[in-house]
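2024-03-11 09:14:02 INFO worker-7 job=invfold-0412 stage=load source=structure_tokens
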């Protein structure tokens, strides 16, 4: 299978409508791919807090509509990154959208771990409460978003639900870029699966983005890595390598489940 990661420059001087149209055109150009991945909150900006409330959308809003059409036009599975979702009956959510090649909204994922330590996203967004895995015709995808990368227990839960490829859109800042690549490789090694980590580029909300989207194989080898600016990286993956790695190096078999608490 072939996967393309679209590292988008979120330029505050570009309107949301213009960026949406531009990104949809980039997706439509990926006809040779099976899976296309976009970053977190690429339409508004992961740190553009002042735009979130006014720019929030429902799951049938303009971004979802444009991405559904782009997925259908290209004939690809499209992880359209995430949007600020306005739930008519609840708070805002950081919600990822996965479209099938027919343009159907096949899966959503509301980000569980919100960044900000009681401010920013953690204050503005509600927490997701459910994991999301998606069976495709090439592999089972496990969905996570940005800050989730720091929580290995989430990835272990996705693993237990059948995930083979972990898709992680992000708006990860440049000042912690080394953590980004380290954690993406660590999650791949721990779960013995592919990690497709797609980040934003540019600067939004006054925060420089790290870029450096990357694809990591089940052994922790970086197969491709973007630079600092807007870029598309495309990689051919072998989904069969996941089962092969787990069989040849059966570390997951040796997990200790239900460890008792120490006596006091």
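2024-03-11 09:14:09 INFO worker-7 stage=emit residues=264
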């Amino acid at each position: 299978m072939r996967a393309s990661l679209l590292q988008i420059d979120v330029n505050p001087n570009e309107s949301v409508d213009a960026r949406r149209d531009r990104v949809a055109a980039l997706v439509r150009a990926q006809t040779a791919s099976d899976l296309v991945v976009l970053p977190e909150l690429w339409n508004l900006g992961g740190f553009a807090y002042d735009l979130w409330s006014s720019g929030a959308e429902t799951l049938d809003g303009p971004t979802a509509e444009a991405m559904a059409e782009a997925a259908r036009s290209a004939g690809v599975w499209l992880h359209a990154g995430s949007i600020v979702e306005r739930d008519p009956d609840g708070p805002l959510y950081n919600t990822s959208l996965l479209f099938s090649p027919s343009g159907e909204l096949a899966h959503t994922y509301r980000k569980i771990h919100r960044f900000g330590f009681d401010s920013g996203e953690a204050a503005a967004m509600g927490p997701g409460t459910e994991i999301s895995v998606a069976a495709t015709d090439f592999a089972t995808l496990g969905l996570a978003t940005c800050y989730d990368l720091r929580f290995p227990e989430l990835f272990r839960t996705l693993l237990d639900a059948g995930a083979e490829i972990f898709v992680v859109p992000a708006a990860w800042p440049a000042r912690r870029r080394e953590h980004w690549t380290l954690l993406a490789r660590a999650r791949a090694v721990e779960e013995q699966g592919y990690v497709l980590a797609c980040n934003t580029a540019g600067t939004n909300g006054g925060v420089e983005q790290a870029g450096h989207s990357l694809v990591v194989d089940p052994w922790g080898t970086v197969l491709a890595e973007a630079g600092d600016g807007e870029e598309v990286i495309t990689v051919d993956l072998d989904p069969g390598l996941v089962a092969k790695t787990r069989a040849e190096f059966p570390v997951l078999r040796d997990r200790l489940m239900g460890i008792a608490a120490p006596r006091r």
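2024-03-11 09:14:09 INFO worker-7 stage=report msg="The chain has a mean pLDDT of 96."
2024-03-11 09:14:10 INFO worker-7 job finished
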